[in-house]
Write a structure and sequence with these properties.
54% of the residues lie in helices and 7% in strands. The chain has eleven helices and four strands. It has helices at residues 13-16, 19-30, 41-53, 59-66, 68-72, 98-107, 121-126, 134-144, 146-159, 166-175, 179-189; strands at residues 8-11, 36-38, 111-113, 130-132.
């Protein structure tokens, strides 16, 4: 089954955990139209829980952070029960990630962006889902459209915490494990 438009992608909770990376991936999808982000209620619940329990955010702050996906990608909502017949246990070593695998399968996602090592890459690839860290994807996409990326980086920096320098945003993106992308942007800007 071929899909029209950009490839569908799941952002795992560990990507949502980084506000700057979560927003960047959203801008890549929304502004540059390189991805079609999909989500489930289960993913949003896990992300909210992680932000309150691990990052110590207040529940309302975590909800606003996580609600970026349904607010900006309302058509990406996916019912994971549609993947109930799939052998989800064969796709991950972590039972807590079953709902992410179900989301990827039910939505017809091409990508599952994560830093989590519990996913079984070959098994997911056999179901049409590429498990990928965001950095290589972003570097390749930047090389194809550096002007578009520079625009969204400037916009993101200007809107981040009342406006911050691009250099601070790039440092935050490095901490979010997209060092190659941050370095590519820095080199292009000559900073």
């Amino acid at each position: 089954m071929s899909q029209a438009g950009p490839p569908r992608a799941v952002l795992d909770a560990d990507i949502i955990y980084s506000r700057v990376l979560h927003e960047l991936m959203g801008r890549v999808a929304d502004d540059l139209r390189l991805l079609d982000l999909v989500w489930s209620e289960e993913l949003l619940a896990e992300a909210r829980r992680s932000l309150t329990e691990k990052k110590g955010l207040a529940a309302d702050v975590a909800a606003r952070w996580v609600d970026y996906l349904p607010r900006n990608f309302p058509d990406g909502r996916t019912d994971v029960t549609r993947a109930a017949d799939a052998d989800i246990d064969a796709l991950t070593n972590d039972p807590d990630d079953r709902h992410i695998c179900a989301l990827a399968i039910a939505s017809g996602a091409t990508y599952l962006f994560t830093h989590d090592r519990g996913y079984l890459h070959e098994a997911l690839r056999g179901r049409g889902v590429e498990v990928a860290a965001p950095d290589p994807f972003l570097v390749t996409a930047f090389d194809a459209d550096s002007e578009g990326f520079l625009e969204i980086i400037e916009l993101q920096a200007a809107g981040w915490a009342g406006g911050r320098p691009v250099s601070e945003l790039l440092a935050a993106l490095e901490r979010a494990e997209v060092e190659g992308f941050a370095n590519r942007v820095r080199a292009t800007l000559g900073r």
